[in-house]
């Protein structure tokens, strides 16, 4: 009799070791889940087993794919939720029906065996991440409960060994929450909003020299950035046609005056000649006006500076020999000590700028030096720049000595204080709003 009992104990122990070995030999979690709900059936004689992870059924005895809407699956998940509400520890235990509500007890009688055992799976911190629901017709003996408890340690260890990353994430989740909270707190820190835009140093209160007539420029007598004085000759137009026009006007005036004098002498004897004197006098005055206009155009062919300063323009070769229209901008006579900053702020970068907002210029030729300025004027309507970009024109006054005229660089404009989150996400939020149409 004792020999038979010993043989039976050895067989149980061998099966127990086989279950542990099968769990450790599983290559992935799918294979391990199948082993947990099926391989122990021969040793413990349960009708069915269900593996639950984080409150959801992962595997069920005899089923390859778990249907989340199956009655048995729904019952097991609800029963586990009720057990976790009332349980004070994570120890393996026989399930007491009194801990379930009336509906769950009714579902238990219809869908599961009368005696159930809950075997939790614990991590290294003794926290439950899942467990096995084992149900059969016979009550669970103390010896079987001990074996199941030992087997639960093996199952948990095998499962965690196949999911090291998941365990790592669970361990660091509090730190991630702290980091996320710190980032969210930093997003509300007020910072000064700023934006960058291309800029150029241009003359302040300069005299614009425009073409006084239609024609062709024959000679530039000044070079870019050359100092000039009031009255200095800047450039000349081709005056061939203008001089001929003056000559024709002079001869026409001489003919009109001669005709007037001849009729004036005949007026004493010829009444008809006297009647034409007023007409001839008016015609002579007309020719006099035409002569003065022709001389004025001839004088305009030589353009002179109206003030002291430097001649600000790009290249004289740009204008030589080309037809020029009246009013066309040719150059600016400016005081090099008086300059302003012109900023082209792109429409997509536009922010709310207060009156007299701070502006800083970083020249392209000397990016390490900064030139502070104050916003003086901002356009309300955007216009196309030379680069074909739609931008707002802004003007700023330098706080100190201005840079050289014509210097280009990048201007940084400072606005009001805004939360850091808005400062960083302003452009992405604007793009998202345009994309979704809100």
Automatic annotation (TrEMBL):
Pfam families according to UniProt: GAF
Keywords of the record: Coiled coil, Membrane, Transmembrane, Transmembrane helix
Protein's organism: Zobellella iuensis
SUPFAM superfamilies xref list: GAF domain-like, HlyD-like secretion proteins
InterPro entries: GAF, UPF0194_transport
Residues passing through the membrane, by range: 174-191
Subcellular location: Cell envelope
Protein name, per record: HlyD family efflux transporter periplasmic adaptor subunit
PANTHER family, per the entry: BLL5650 PROTEIN, EFFLUX SYSTEM COMPONENT YKNX-RELATED
Residues annotated as domain GAF: 28-153
């Amino acid at each position: 009799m004792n020999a038979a009992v010993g043989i039976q104990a050895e067989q149980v122990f061998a099966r127990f070791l086989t279950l542990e070995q099968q769990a450790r030999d599983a290559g992935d979690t799918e294979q391990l889940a199948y082993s947990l709900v099926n391989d122990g059936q021969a040793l413990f004689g349960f009708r069915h087993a269900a593996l639950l992870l984080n409150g959801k059924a992962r595997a069920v005895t005899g089923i390859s794919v778990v249907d989340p809407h199956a009655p048995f699956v729904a019952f097991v998940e609800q029963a586990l939720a009720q057990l976790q509400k009332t349980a004070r520890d994570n120890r393996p235990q026989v399930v007491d029906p009194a801990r379930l509500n009336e509906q769950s007890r009714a579902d238990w009688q219809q869908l599961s065996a009368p005696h159930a055992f809950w075997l939790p799976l614990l991590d290294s911190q003794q926290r439950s991440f899942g467990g096995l629901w084992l149900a059969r017709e016979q009550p669970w003996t103390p010896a079987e409960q001990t074996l199941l408890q030992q087997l639960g340690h093996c199952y948990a260890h095998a499962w965690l060994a196949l999911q090291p990353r998941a365990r790592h994430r669970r361990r660091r989740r509090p730190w991630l929450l702290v980091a996320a909270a710190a980032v969210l707190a930093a997003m509300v820190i007020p910072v000064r909003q700023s934006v960058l835009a291309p800029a150029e140093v241009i003359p302040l209160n300069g005299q614009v020299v425009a073409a006084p007539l239609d024609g062709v420029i024959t000679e530039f007598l000044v070079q870019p950035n050359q100092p000039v004085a009031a009255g200095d000759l800047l450039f000349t137009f081709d005056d061939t046609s203008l001089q001929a026009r003056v000559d024709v006007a002079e001869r026409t005036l001489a003919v009109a005056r001669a005709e007037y004098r001849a009729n004036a002498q005949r007026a004493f004897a010829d009444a008809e000649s006297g009647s034409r004197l007023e007409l001839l006098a008016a015609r002579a005055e007309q020719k006099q006006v035409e002569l003065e206009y022709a001389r004025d155009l001839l004088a305009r062919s030589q353009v002179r500076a109206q003030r002291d300063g430097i001649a600000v323009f790009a290249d004289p070769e740009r204008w030589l020999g080309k037809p020029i229209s009246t009013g066309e901008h040719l150059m600016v006579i400016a005081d090099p000590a008086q300059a302003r900053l012109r900023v082209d702020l792109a429409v997509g970068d536009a922010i709310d700028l207060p009156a007299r907002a701070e502006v800083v210029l970083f020249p392209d030729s000397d990016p390490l030096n900064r030139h502070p300025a104050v916003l003086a004027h901002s356009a309300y309507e955007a216009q196309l720049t030379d680069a074909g970009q739609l931008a707002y024109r802004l003007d700023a006054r330098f706080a100190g000595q201005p840079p050289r005229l014509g210097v280009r660089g990048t201007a940084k404009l400072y606005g009001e204080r805004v939360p850091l989150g808005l400062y960083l996400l302003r452009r992405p939020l604007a793009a998202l709003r345009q994309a979704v149409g809100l």
